[in-house]
Amino acid sequence: MIKEKGQNVLIGENVKFGSNVVIGNNVVIYEGTIIGQNVIIQDNVVIGKQPVRAKASILPDVKKLPPTIIGSGVTVGTSAVIYANAEIGEDVFVADLATVRERVKIGKKTIVGRGVAIENDCVVGSNCKLETNCYITAYSELGDFVFVAPCVVTTNDNYLARGKERFDKFKGITVKDGGRIGANATVLPGKVIYEDGTVAAGSVVSRDVEKESLVVGSPAKELRKVPQDQLLRNQ
């Protein structure tokens, strides 16, 4: 159960806690949330928030989503927000000011850095590192041991929010196991970075990145193969 609880904590009905949970000040945990053991929830965190649909949103209106699940050993940093129907695996670290949207799944031991936004309907694998202020667009899928550097931008709409034909064509990015994206790179909708594919800092990915290839530039083109000592299987 709760080991420590700060001031002004609001806990909804039917919230389940494992042992040794520490909760900071001004925390809101919505009804039905499941929290494992040895979890640390720092000040001003919101867990289990139901999404609010903008009047102009093209997303379907969902009345109520299932509760959030937080695995054992998780740390949730100050002012982070985790929406309803998110599943956070064991030993995940969610840093200050991060946002994890609805229907997101995050695998064990992944680090979600400060200010990172993971939009709705994403899957993030285990042992990933999503660094400060990177943006993971909706409908994306990241494998295991994926590295996303600070300020990376990913996109899912080739129509730039105009034209009804776009409604059934949203497609996030895919990064296979061991894929890496350098700082301030941009990845366009639907592009795939295959196993150990690597994107250099500042590049614009406008086509798929082949397995074990290093791409550079705008548009990004293959420069060479990733060195053997950098491949995931050799770590």
Verbal overview:
The chain has 2 domains: 1-50 and 67-118, Hexapeptide repeat proteins (UDP N-Acetylglucosamine Acyltransferase, domain 1), CATH 2.160.10.10; 131-159 and 169-228, 3 Solenoid (UDP N-Acetylglucosamine Acyltransferase, domain 1), CATH 2.160.10. It has 235 residues and is mainly beta. It has no helices and 31 strands. The strands form 4 sheets. A 12-stranded mixed beta sheet has the order 1-4-7-10-13-16-19-22-25-28-30-31, with no helix packed on it. Strands 3-6-9-12-15-18-21-24-27 form a 9-stranded parallel beta sheet, with no helix packed on it. The protein has a 7-stranded parallel beta sheet with strand order 2-5-8-11-14-17-20, with no helix packed on it. Helix content is 0%, strand content 31%.
Layout of helices and strands, plus pairs?
Layout: E1 2-5, E2 10-11, E3 16-17, E4 21-23, E5 28-29, E6 34-35, E7 40-41, E8 46-49, E9 69-70, E10 75-76, E11 81-83, E12 87-88, E13 93-94, E14 99-100, E15 105-106, E16 111-112, E17 117-118, E18 123-124, E19 129-130, E20 135-136, E21 141-142, E22 147-148, E23 153-154, E24 174-175, E25 180-181, E26 186-187, E27 192-193, E28 198-199, E29 204-205, E30 213-216, E31 221-225
Parallel strand pairs: 1-4, 2-5, 3-6, 4-7, 5-8, 6-9, 7-10, 8-11, 9-12, 10-13, 11-14, 12-15, 13-16, 14-17, 15-18, 16-19, 17-20, 18-21, 19-22, 21-24, 22-25, 23-26, 24-27, 25-28, 26-29, 28-30
Antiparallel strand pairs: 30-31
